[in-house]
Amino acid sequence: MPPQKLYAGAKLREIRNRLALTQREFATKLGISLPYLNQMENNNRPVSTTVVLALAQEFGLDVTELSSGDSERLVSDMREVLADPLFAEAMPPPADLRLTASNAPALARAFIELHRHYRQTHERLASLDEALGREDARLQASPWEEVRDFFHYCDNYIDAVDRSAERFADLARRENGVSAAAEAMLGAQGITVRNIDTETLRSYDAEARLLRLSSRAAPETRVFQLLLQVALLTQDKLLEATLDFARFQTEAARSIAKIGLANYFAGAALMPYGSFLEAARETRHDLELLGHRFGASIEQVAHRLSTLQRPGAKGIPFFFVRVDQAGTITKRHSATRLQFARFGGACPLWNVHRAFETPGHFLRQLAETPDGVRYISLARDVSKPGGSFGAPVRRYAIALGCEIRHADALVYADNLDVNNASAFEPIGISCRICERATCHQRSVPPLERRLTIDPDTRDTLPYQVS
Predict the structure, then answer these.
(1) 3-state DSSP call for residue 196?
(2) CA distances for 346 relative to 273, 371, 410, angstroms
(3) I want to staple 46 with a disulfide (CB 3.0 to 4.6 A). Which of 5, 96, 127, 423 is the partner?
(4) Integer CA distances (angstroms), 411 to 43, 278, 316, 320, in order
(5) Using CA atoms, how far apart are residues 410 and 243, in angstroms rounded to an integer?
(6) Element spanning 464, H or E
(7) Contact assessment for residue 42 and residue 9, using Cβ atoms and an 8 Å cutoff
(8) DSSP 345
(9) How far apart, in Å, are the Cα atoms of 361 and each of 288, 364, 378, 398, 431?
(10) What is d(CA 20, CA 296) in angstroms, rounded to the nearest whole number?
(11) Confidence band (pLDDT; 50, 70, 90) for 194?
(12) Are 11 and 65 within 8 A, CB to CB?
């Protein structure tokens, strides 16, 4: 595939404004003319190699910022929004969407946000009878979606929280491990930690200064919950400052995000950035070896791998997703060009759905999306027992993957025929925006294509896509 030209006008303007430079001053430092800079900032020209090198040499910038996933995410999100039947055949061409995402990202986000509010209003009206008489029936943003989008557009990497967790991990190495350091830190605040035979994973009694952890939980789960409580009790100022920066619209979203940030701290403390990145490269991203080395679960390791996006020290850009048995996406993040559907489930042709059929085993898949980008995807089921006879077992499947160009760095790519085009299975994102005309698993017609219905002919689909 030929290299793509880099159009990053909005990012160039953002960098210039961050440095508090005028266009003329910025152009001078980059060694280019003012008109040339103006053309690049307006995406009339691609960013040249000379400018990329100058940004690195003159300002010490991580030039991967120029190709961060924001533009791809916005294009994917806008395509999905425009797949709403509300817009009928109003889908703009892909070039227009890319232009909007590059030149007017704020407008693109506003459009996506407007559609989100429309959907919520529509759903509210659909359930009006139920909502009548309820005090909480007023329209407000979905806190789950608000928090999801916050992490989505932060590239699932929160620098201040990650570095604070790394400092804690450095301390833990000097105090006989993470658990001992966590208990010592809580003990210094007069808090006692006890393992108790209970279904509740974690319970903190502020009045009694007592933290209860379930002895039924797996060891890695207990440690994670211990670290999560450490974050809530010792990192409150940092978490609150991060929440202030995010400017959530509702208190519910802020509260959910705080738990999310505490979870982030716990994962980063258990698997500190520098040592985890080094170990990931050394083991060729073997999830089981990394789990043993850091005392983490398979899911925790896979999720952590998807967060290694620190400027200047980035890991492989992975996508990570967790689905339930109904195919609903319960966790999602992508640092790759592959972006998951914001609404609905994942493509049924993806191996993450087949993981439920082979419990305890990794499934490998070579896949190609409609845009021609090829990926390697790893999937596995994750069961979370209730801890006693008759207690419900929660079952999920997780998938971790990256573009095939990183295959040499993955142990899971060994013995796969990555150079054979026919070895790659065709997958999509969402049926409404998938361009594949002959998919045998299609659930609804693609919005952008014309349909032909012949009552005298029936193939796999009851229509033909042209």
Answers:
(1) strand
(2) 29, 17, 24
(3) 5
(4) 39, 15, 13, 17
(5) 35
(6) strand 464-465
(7) yes
(8) B
(9) 11, 10, 10, 12, 28
(10) 43
(11) very high
(12) yes
Output the six-digit token pair for 154: 């932060």
Phi, psi of 364 (to 5 degrees): -110, 145
Q: Give the torsion sign (CA, 72, 78, 84, 88).
A: negative
**Residues 6 or more apart from 137 whose CB is under 8 A from it?**
124, 131
Is residue 386 within 8 Å of 392, Cβ to Cβ? yes
Question: E strands of 230-349, at which residues?
Answer: 319-324, 329-334
- Provide Rg for the chain, Cα atoms: 24
Q: Which residue has the tokens 């890991």?
A: 315
Q: How many Å apart are CA 404 and CA 364, to the nearest integer?
A: 12
Q: Which two tokens stand for residue 385?
A: 């027992």
Distance of CA 208 to the CA centre of its chain: 38
Q: What is the pLDDT of residues 124-135, one digit of tens each?
A: 665 554 444 444
For the stretch 67-114, pLDDT in tens is 555 677 778 788 878 877 677 666 787 778 877 887 778 888 888 888
For residue 381, the surrounding DSSP H or E stretch is strand 374-384
Mean pLDDT within 366-386: 90
Pairing of strands 425-426, 451-452: unpaired
CA distances from 408 to 303, 319, 375, 412 (A): 21, 17, 13, 9
User: Is there a contact between 155 and 68 (Cβ–Cβ < 8 Å)?
Assistant: yes
For the chain, how many residues are written? 466
What beta strand segments (E) does 277-338 contain? 319-324, 329-334
Q: Is the pLDDT of residue 140 over 60?
A: no
**Residue 137 confidence (pLDDT) above 50:** no
Instruction: Write 420-427 long-range contacts (CB < 8 A, 24+).
Output: 423/366, 424/366, 424/367, 424/368, 424/374, 425/349, 425/365, 425/366, 425/367, 425/368, 426/349, 426/367, 426/368, 426/370, 427/347, 427/349, 427/350, 427/367, 427/368, 427/369
Q: In terms of Cα–Cα distance, which of 355, 362, 359, 308 is closest to 327?
A: 355
**3 state SS of 19:** coil
Pairing of strands 210-214, 319-324: unpaired
